[in-house]
Amino acid sequence: MFVKEMNAAWYSRRSTALTFLGVFALLYALIFVPNHALLRTYALDLGLYTHAAWHYAHFHMHDSTLFMEEPQPILADHFDLYLPLFSPLVHVFGTWTLLLVQWVALLVGAWGVRRFLLAQDLSPGMALLGMLLFLLFFGVFAAIAFDYHSNVVATGVLPWFLLALWRGRHIRALVLFCLMLVGKESMGLWLGPLALVLAFDGTLPRTTRLWAGSFGALGLAWSFVAIGMVMPALSAKAEYAHFDYSILGTGLEDVGRAIVDHSGRILCAFFSDHRGVENGTAIKLEFWGMLLLAGGWSFVLRPKWGLMALPLLAQKMLHDDPGKWSVVAHYGVEFAPLLAIAAPLTLSRLGAVSARKWLCVASLIGAFACTIRFMDRTVAYQDRSRIRFYQVDHYTKPYSVASFRRALDRIPEDATVSAQSPAVPHFALREHVYQFPLVRDAEHLVLLPKESPYPLDTTEYERHVNAILLDTTWQLVDSAGGVVYLKRLGRKAMSKGG
Prior knowledge:
It is a single chain. Strands 2-1-3-5-4 form a five-stranded mixed β-sheet, with helices on one face. Helices cover 58% and strands 4% of the residues. The protein has helices at 2-37, 43-57, 82-86, 90-93, 97-119, 124-136, 138-144, 150-166, 170-181, 187-199, 206-234, 255-261, 263-269, 280-296, 298-301, 303-317, 322-325, 335-347, 353-376, 401-410, 458-470, and strands at 417-419, 433-435, 444-447, 474-478, 484-488. A hairpin with a 5-residue loop joins strand 4 (474-478) and strand 5 (484-488). The radius of gyration is 24 Å and the shape is globular. The chain is mostly helical. The protein is built from 21 helices and five strands. The chain folds into two domains: 2-386, no CATH class; 401-488, no CATH class.
């Protein structure tokens, strides 16, 4: 009788967890679905990655001409093998494919946190707390509001890798570890050290620690080979384009010497501006404050998990781009599973039940407060309507989306298109599409004058548009509703209906 009551209680907690998961699935959908439908996804990165996935689905290698002047394989820009893996799905889900993959990955990751904590003999309530900390984390909301990125998918896999490793299912852990690695060339620089931390965890069996050590070596080798050899060989400029860490030197080979020679400066750069940008230190301290309040305090009380987060902090805070230091976009999502696991593990060790309950509530309030702060803060270089799903602006545009849809329907699926950045993801399922001002051999041109002129400034944008409008080889087809659609004369440009 007692066992049946326990089972009933467990299933009740499981149904509660599924209910919360469903609620957050809806909240996330309320963010990314209107964003994509209302042209708040962009050429970089959703348009580029969807276009690459379409090419992979048709057994082509993508050449990056969507946004680059000089052709080169997209793998030279980011060594992302998720795109060929997910590419068959574009035949089913079209331009929504990668957004749906990312959405599912986050939900699966949250459930994985719960499963891992239950495997640590924590109560269903504590496991639910971990899942909620993951789902509430401001970095998760930020990531789902800003296009698609492969590190978000890898983040969802991490709890399942940890679960497999703790259970001694080493082959499954190897498969999951490799699945995370192939998401991006830099994943090994985080996952390698993470696995090495586990290799020295005395609570794990010796065999498991040996496997973890092997994972660590594999992760570091993957990133060093990809960054140091494979990607430069593929690059048009014979170099890796994303080592933007001047404080550490010019490449991975300089990092060790920089740490020895400039350790004090590097340590300070974790917390203060090292690039001389406006409010740079404030940007870093804001992230630190929100990370700690959202559950990162557990990294101090559970140093093992803090060490797993250290490579992420280094990649974030030592970067040359101040945007990477901030709370925006996908530049903090990887912390979610680590703090969502570390916080309940820490709280579960507290002896007083009443104190533990209050601290659990405080943890959830802290995570919720940080997410609300992220949504409501005003940042000049970000469109806050992308994340504020509770405001009318999230569901409207200052021009007619219907006019854009009419232009989209009039352009043949096999036609070459140049389009402004927010329009590019919607034209990605074709052989050639370019981000304006790249025009090349485009037969059709779609402009959105009320959108940001990125990658141009306003003056350059107006100069390019005026030149196009004065060019007699282009015919203005429609300019209603704030959408400008032009067709090149003398080129095949028929409607879908013929």
